[in-house]
Amino acid sequence: MSAYRLLGRTGAKVSSLGFGVSGPHASPAVSRAATITLVRRAVELGVTAFDTGPSYGDGEAERRLGAALKGLERDRLFVITKAGVSSNGGAGRRMRDFSPDGIERSLLDSLGRLGLDQADALMLHGPSPGDLTPALLDRVDALKARGLLRFTGVCGRGAELDAAIDTGRLDLLMAPLNAGLPAAALARFARAKAAGIGVIGIEAMSGARRDVRAPASLADLWYLARSVKQVVTGAAPAAATTDPAEALAWALGRPDADCVLIQTTRLAHLEANARSAALDPAPAPA
């Protein structure tokens, strides 16, 4: 599989490995400087696709990504943000607004935090099938016509993804992609590809075996807390059968996935993942 792939029928080419700025990168668990360092190193390693959203840390993730990408060659980057879900002051409260006006306000606010005039992609963040109304789709098409975004899609886990494909009006799909998924979920990726929709996989290493060790940083504590929450809520992934490297290789090797997003707080992990994807390092500045 190529290290750089076309996103469905969009004509845009992105790195097969993308970097997600969310989770610990939107919290005090990781410093802003550390996030910026990792993002810039990802660019040096050949990563071109970056994903974030307003619901991560009340916009903090978008602010960090914007700071990291400032001054870099914009034409080489593919910046994804989301709309429809936001957080309130880091208090853990999430609010949903999939009204056309709400989506437009969200996009404009996100562009301000990112320091961009245009997002490469705007993903509707977990809408219900009923949220995908003609009025909403008309508005995102109008935002595209105004040059505020290039492509639109849906990020989700279930029926909303099928509804997105059925509209025939969206460019991208973002969903979990790992070997522990049921056959129906994996078949959805093939269906999207057959419809010309670009496919972006997330949570590729969900459920992969992890080394058991005492937390060595605030970021480690963040991941530990998330794991405990998954067990308590019953959302824990199935028992691990592969290690993280094998899980990532499986996702990268899927012919129906154009880009696989990873999230890490460790430079060594980022560099190992970039090697797995066989990315081309970015040229040094003149």
Q: Could you provide a short overview of the structure?
A:
With 286 residues, this protein is an alpha/beta fold. The protein has helices spanning 32-45, 60-69, 100-114, 134-145, 159-167, 183-194, 218-233, 244-252, 267-276; strands spanning 4-6, 13-15, 17-20, 49-51, 78-83, 85-87, 94-96, 119-125, 149-155, 172-176, 198-202, 259-262.
Q: Order of helices and strands, N to C?
A: EEEHEHEEEHEHEHEHEHHEH
Tally of individual domains: 1
CATH H-level superfamily: NADP-dependent oxidoreductase domain
Low-confidence stretches: 221-236
CATH class: Alpha Beta
CATH topology: TIM Barrel
Q: What's the total helix number?
A: 9
Shape: globular
| Strand portion | 15-25%
Report, as a whole number of angstroms, the end-to-end distance. 31 Å
Average pLDDT works out at 89
CATH architectural arrangement: Alpha-Beta Barrel
What is the makeup of the main sheet? Answer: 8 strands, parallel, barrel
* Radius of gyration based on Cα positions: 18 Å
Number of strands: 12
Structural class: alpha/beta
Percent of residues in helical segments? 25-40%
